[in-house]
Amino acid sequence: MVTMNRTKLAIGLGVIVALLIGVRVFLMLGTPKEVDPRTRIQQMFAQGKQAFENEDIEGMLDLISDDFHWGGMNKQQLRYQLAQFFKQSDAPRAELGELQIEIFAGRILVRTTVRATWRDSNAPGGTTSQDLGVVEFEFRKFPQRKWLIIPYEDWQLVRIDAPQMGEIPL
Q: Is this structure's pTM higher than 0.70?
């Protein structure tokens, strides 16, 4: 009887240890690896450009913080403006200049020239373009969760400043 209880205890402890090791390995493998900030920002610009050209509003907004602001707009207002823009235009394209990246403690500033082109659905024969000049983008690191349980940090866009642009073209 005593050996049977010890066997059950040993099996129970073995299962608990195996579960703990499994959870630790799952968390270790599931946590996104830290990427060089310059590389991550370049990836984000490529993702954002692709999302814009695919008219993927959610793909664009995934890169933006809830604290975002641009020309008096917050994230939700930007969502609405993008929906309106994509509804009225076809084949949007974005041209970016060389990314000039400055890394500070806790934030990154990126300056680049931006030009957007699209076909206006009200004037199908012509292409419309908007040269935004040199635009400054500010990124900050925010806590994120992968699969709702694995914490990590990633950069998100918090501000856009386009001083050469008059009104937002959206």
A: yes
